[in-house]
């Protein structure tokens, strides 16, 4: 099964607040020409400029909560859609933590990119929001410099003055400039990839997804997340990302790129540092990961969590570290089986219970460190992987969630403010779905906003 490229998400309504953006739009200045005498023309004064008045309106604590019976009745018609395939889910009242509806919530299912919620949550719990990754150039041999990968997948080969794929990314040209200023004479470039261990492709990944643009072999240094044409979301990824980075540095230093070599993965170079650059802070990288469902970014951040827990920076080390961090925070991870940090593996398994508990903790008061998750997931009809979904539904602007899609799999986890003003969290998982499975899933989630479920 070749996974398809549908994984990302953005805004809605959060915990105890609904974000309303009220924009007063004033029409463009109308020029009224009224002939008075000869060539005289009277022009009306320009109107005042348009103004925006954003406002955060608290959700009422007195809003009526749905009842399990009312919710079940409202969901019955959309639940009957056979295109949902094997379907599990859980819906919770965010204010009380009461489970309002559940179907197979403890059955492990293929999560697709909703797995990134676990990676993001573990990163918020285990790392500092301002953490940055460092890419260095060192030397231990005259004439030879070594590009040492530190896990920054945002490093860019874009020329100075041109936009990089990732905002505020460090650049190869900055490293080259520092090397030149050092006075070090360079005739050879090598690449140190020892920061990561284990295989570069996870169990359950399809190698065709490299050309498909979904993933690259996971190495601790690459350019623009491994994109070969970082100007398009359709860009295929490189099969040799670390080598590409080394060659880009060689070109910037005037060295023959064909002489660049990648050192064996078990060999690290501890030479004199000549140059270094840093990645954007963790929060910015988490936003990119969640908003655009960036698989490479997720794998890198998962390894950051592993390093923080003194575990191997590998697929297995990252997956184990993410689950251990969530266990320590009181999240029920029973039934979880993870082979990566992105959800691209077709062998990953999670329960709706685990996913919903993460969101419930984020919008509630039990784990303040998870609160930023509320602002990291996409908005229905507004941003990220949800920007083109729910456009003509009552859920647009009121639902936020992390999407997940693989062949036959559609998942969505997030929160929504219902019609009465009550915030509900949800985790919905559809496996072996029919041809309109994603539409069926969206209809189910949209019902949470539009139904009158209190009776």
Brief write-up:
The chain is α+β, with helices and mostly antiparallel strands and 455 residues long. The protein is built from eleven helices and 13 strands.
Largest sheet: 6 strands, antiparallel
Please write the string of helix (H) and strand (E) elements.
EEEHEEHEEHEHHEEHHHHHEEEH
- If you average the pLDDT, what whole number results? 89
Cα-atom Rg, whole angstroms?
Answer: 25 Å
Gross geometry: elongated
Question: Helix tally?
Answer: 11
Which strand order spans the largest sheet, edge to edge or round the barrel? 1-11-12-13-4-5
Fraction of residues in helices? Answer: 25-40%
Unreliable residue runs: 1-41
Strand content: 15-25%
The structural class is alpha+beta
| Record field, number of beta strands | 13
Distance between the termini: 43 Å
Notable features of this structure?
about 450 residues; alpha+beta; disordered N terminus; single chain; six-stranded antiparallel sheet; 11 helices; five-stranded mixed sheet
Helices and strands, with pairings:
Elements: E1 9-10, E2 17-24, E3 51-58, H1 68-79, E4 86-93, E5 99-103, H2 115-126, E6 134-141, E7 144-148, H3 172-182, E8 188-192, H4 208-211, H5 241-253, E9 261-262, E10 272-278, H6 282-291, H7 295-308, H8 315-328, H9 352-363, H10 373-376, E11 399-406, E12 409-417, E13 423-431, H11 437-450
Parallel strand pairs: 7-8, 8-9
Antiparallel strand pairs: 1-11, 2-3, 4-5, 4-13, 6-7, 6-10, 11-12, 12-13
């Amino acid at each position: 099964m070749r996974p398809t490229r549908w994984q990302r998400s953005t805004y809605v309504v959060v915990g105890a607040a609904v974000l309303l953006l009220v924009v007063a739009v004033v029409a463009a200045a109308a020029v009224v020409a009224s002939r008075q005498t000869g060539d005289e023309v009277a022009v009306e004064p320009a109107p005042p400029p348009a103004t925006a008045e954003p406002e955060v309106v608290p959700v009422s604590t007195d809003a009526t909560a749905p009842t399990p019976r009312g919710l079940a009745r409202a969901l019955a018609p959309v639940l009957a859609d056979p295109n949902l395939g094997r379907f599990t889910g859980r819906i919770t009242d965010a204010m009380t933590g009461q489970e309002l509806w559940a179907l197979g919530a403890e059955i492990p299912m293929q999560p697709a990119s909703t797995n990134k919620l676990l990676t993001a949550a573990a990163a918020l719990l285990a790392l500092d929001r301002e953490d940055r990754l460092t890419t260095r150039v060192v030397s231990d041999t005259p004439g030879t410099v070594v590009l040492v990968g530190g896990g920054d997948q945002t490093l860019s080969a874009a020329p100075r003055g041109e936009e990089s794929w990732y905002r505020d990314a460090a650049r190869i040209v900055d490293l080259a400039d520092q090397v030149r200023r050092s006075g070090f004479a360079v005739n050879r470039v090598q690449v140190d990839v020892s920061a990561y261990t284990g295989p570069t492709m996870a169990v359950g990944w399809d190698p065709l997804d490299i050309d498909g643009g979904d993933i690259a072999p996971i190495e601790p240094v690459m350019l623009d997340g491994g994109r070969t044409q970082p100007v398009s979301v359709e860009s295929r990824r490189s099969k040799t990302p670390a080598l590409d980075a080394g060659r880009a540095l060689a070109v910037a230093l005037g060295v023959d790129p064909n002489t660049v070599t990648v050192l064996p993965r078990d060999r690290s170079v501890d030479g004199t540092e000549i140059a270094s650059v840093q990645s954007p802070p963790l929060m910015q990288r988490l936003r990119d990961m969640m908003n655009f469902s960036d698989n490479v970014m997720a794998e890198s951040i998962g390894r950051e969590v592993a390093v923080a827990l003194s575990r191997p920076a590998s697929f297995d080390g990252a997956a184990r570290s993410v689950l251990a961090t969530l266990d320590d925070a009181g999240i029920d991870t029973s039934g979880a089986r993870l082979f990566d940090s992105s959800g691209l593996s077709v062998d990953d398994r999670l329960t709706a219970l685990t996913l919903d508990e993460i969101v419930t903790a984020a919008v509630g008061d039990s784990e303040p460190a998870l609160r930023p998750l509320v602002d990291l997931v996409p908005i229905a009809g507004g941003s990220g992987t949800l920007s083109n979904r729910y456009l003509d539904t009552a859920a647009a602007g009121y639902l936020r969630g992390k999407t997940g899609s693989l062949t036959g799999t559609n998942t969505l986890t997030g929160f929504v403010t219902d019609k009465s003003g009550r915030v509900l969290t949800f985790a919905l998982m559809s496996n072996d779905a029919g041809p309109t499975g994603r539409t069926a899933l969206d209809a189910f989630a949209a019902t949470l906003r539009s139904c009158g479920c209190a009776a």
